[in-house]
Specification:
single chain, 503 residues, alpha+beta, Cytochrome-c3 Hydrogenase, chain B, 14 helices, 17 strands, 41% helix
């Protein structure tokens, strides 16, 4: 039996998943990116300083990561020396954006896979928001509409949280999380200029000076966000994990893990980072080499050459190409599939042991759940790794803000060379993000982005080997082949962003 799950909702962009089911087991899966955009094409010939602005338009959820990656690439191309304030402000902007995105993903994009929204019908309190929600759910259920009443109804068939109080509490936090997300975005915008697309991020720094009152306002907003993470997000996440322990075994990808590292601790992009970069394979971590990354297109809708390195990337759309089933390319590291994202970021850091807070949190939560660290490669593992990332980043941002020095430069003098090239690597909330720029005659001659969901939702490569999400779906058991809530939970655990993947 072949089933199209698309359009998959509660994620960014247009994703279809086609599964083949035999005896209630997924024996084949295809991730299908269903749109084309072509940012690399229309960046050519432009002023290099347009890049960090234009590439933010790849995504409205994680725009700052694209601005930062582009800035890093330009810094290398320009051979810039970055002032300490410049790097600190980059970190403050990007870190707050991560906190926003983790809360958005858990509550608005994934929690409803586990939370029973109909529990609100039993609510007897007087909280005005919950009363409105109760009325709305009751009306929708009584109307028996067959079309989606986003974002709550109709639900896929399956098991949900059974504890009424837990469900109602989680729904209350669902609503509160949106207000906290605003605060995280406000924090980013203090130095970023605005959200979603920053006007102040430039190579080497930021046009907004770190003034005392701005630093205080930023820390106040991050502290509110941090308290919500500690007191509500983490307990809700653990409640889901306790109620659905089988999902420590579900959704395992079948490759290695890649992270570029996140939040430099020094002024240069290649400084030591809060989360260390690395490639994790079979328990061993090795340094990341960008020249070992290639992109296959046999099953992608492009007629450009396959297997090209990032600096030689090419983009020739071919919508009617034989065998192709996706607009997403298939990145590979040394010809191998890897997973990127929160689990990769935490596992790569954990195996290197540089950040003691990460190690302590992983060991603590693994102990609570009674699991080994290899179980982080799972649906629940990805959720937990986002929670751990949020805890670590929130603490770091409060300290990092104190390191900003009012009155000192926040951006270097910029001089675009006639020729140059640079790689810029960072971690968007969804994983490893790489930008490459080549400059000729002071204009962009080539630009290439390899983004997190391009890795995770890639189609098969030239040898027919599946991508990370495809591998996580294959072998999974589903109770209802026509609805496949188990598959949807796996998909949402990766938090796909198709606008990024088909940039």
């Amino acid at each position: 039996m072949k089933i199209d799950l698309g359009p998959v909702t509660r994620l960014e962009g247009h994703l279809n998943i086609k599964t083949t089911i035999e005896d209630n087991v997924i024996v084949d899966a295809k991730c299908m990116g269903e749109m084309f955009r072509g940012f690399e094409v229309f960046l050519q010939g432009r002023d290099p300083l347009d890049a960090q602005q234009i590439t933010q338009r790849i995504c409205g959820v994680c725009p700052y990561a694209h601005a930062i990656a582009s800035s890093y690439a330009q810094e290398q191309a320009y051979n810039l020396t970055t002032p300490a304030n410049g790097r600190i402000l980059h970190n403050l902007i990007q870190g707050a954006n991560h906190l926003y995105d983790y809360l958005l993903h858990f509550y608005q994009l994934s929690a409803l896979d586990f939370i029973d929204v109909t529990a609100i019908l039993q609510y007897q309190g007087n909280d005005s928001d919950l009363v409105k929600l109760r009325t709305w759910v009751k009306t929708e259920l009584e109307s028996k509409k067959t079309y989606p009443a986003a974002p709550f109804l109709p639900r896929l068939s399956g098991n949900y949280l059974e504890d009424t109080e837990l469900n109602i509490g989680a729904l209350k936090h669902y609503l509160e999380a949106m207000e906290i997300q605003k605060k995280a975005n406000q924090a980013s915008a203090i130095f970023g200029g605005k959200f979603p697309h920053s006007t102040s991020i430039f190579p080497g720094g930021c046009t907004q000076q770190p003034e005392v009152d701005l630093i205080a306002s930023y820390q106040s907003l991050i502290e509110e966000t941090r308290i919500f993470i500690q007191q509500k997000y983490i307990p809700d996440l653990l409640a889901v994990a306790q109620a659905f322990p089988e999902y420590w075994e579900v959704g395992k990808s079948k490759g290695g893990f890649l992270s570029y590292g996140l939040l430099p601790l020094g002024p240069q992009p290649d400084s030591r980072r809060l989360f260390a970069p690395g490639l994790l394979q079979e328990g061993n971590v090795s340094p990341v080499k960008f020249d070992r990354i290639t992109e296959d297109v046999r099953y992608a809708k492009y007629s450009s050459r396959s297997g090209l390195q990032v600096r030689n990337g090419n983009l020739k759309p071919d919508p009617k190409k034989s065998e192709a089933y996706s607009w997403i390319k298939a990145p590979r590291y040394e010809g191998k599939m890897v997973e990127v994202g929160p689990a990769a970021r935490i596992l790569v850091e954990y195996h290197q042991g540089r950040n003691t807070q990460v190690k302590q949190l992983v060991d603590h939560f693994a102990g609570l759940a009674g699991i080994s660290t290899d179980k982080l490669n799972s649906v629940l593992g990805r959720h937990l790794c986002r929670g751990i990332s949020a805890l670590v980043i929130a603490d770091f941002l409060l300290e990092e803000a104190d390191r900003a020095t009012p009155g000192k430069p926040a951006i270097p003098d910029l001089a675009i060379p006639s020729e140059g090239e640079g790689f810029g690597a960072t971690e968007a909330s969804r994983g490893a993000l790489l930008h490459y720029i080549r400059i000729k005659d002071k204009k962009i001659a080539k630009y290439e982005c390899v983004v997190p969901t391009t890795w995770n939702c890639s189609p098969r490569d030239d040898r027919g080997k599946v991508g990370a999400l495809e591998s996580a779906l294959i072998g999974s058991r589903v109770e209802d082949p026509k609805q496949q809530i188990e598959a949807v939970r796996i998909i949402h655990s990766f938090d796909p962003c198709l606008a990024c993947a088909v940039h």
